């Protein structure tokens, strides 16, 4: 089977994460999917930023939830990464969906509610997905099982996935109890047994964040459904190598 390659925060090794240049580069190298992180502004606009604060990836500081969208639009989200990306702005979810729906891309929108439980983030994000008619190619994920529970209650049109970073006794029950249909697990949790268990239950298993070639190849060999990678160009190269060596299984 083919492992789907999702660009993690876009092609985030070669462009500033979660920005238009990172998503455009991911698409141009042939990533099939884009992963991104959503937080809410003070005026409830979903924006694409990994951290709860602006400090690391913009020239602003403080919590996103304490800024209006209009305030965020004045910030630079590219210069911290490299001078040539100066002038890159923070993307709203709406801008991201408007652009990505023009291409046959899969989307994984991660709701960042593991630190701040943004009220109504589930219905706000769902409304955006529906407005752009992207239900069938979007996956909603979160580390927070309550978020997934709430989202799953709103709709069955959009696939949900629970993120897992720590070893627990029964990961599949943890996923099912949240109402999620898929498991997005940290690479360190990947075992052949986990792959087999998920397959038996028809539960898609997607692995993050896989950047090193031996790890990428291991995911392909084990038949993981997808990987999230900062280096989609390299993952695609290794997929071609894998297909050539083992045939497309
Ligand atoms: O969705 C996979 C991965 O993005 C989860 O971790 O911290 O990179 O958002 P993080
Ligand atoms: Mg993420």
UniProtKB/TrEMBL annotation:
Chain ranges of the GP-PDE domain: 3-239
PANTHER family to which the protein is assigned, alphabetical: GLYCEROPHOSPHODIESTER PHOSPHODIESTERASE, CYTOPLASMIC, GLYCEROPHOSPHORYL DIESTER PHOSPHODIESTERASE
Superkingdom: Bacteria
SUPFAM superfamilies recorded: PLC-like phosphodiesterases
The protein's name in its UniProt record: Glycerophosphodiester phosphodiesterase
A Pfam family recorded for this sequence: GDPD
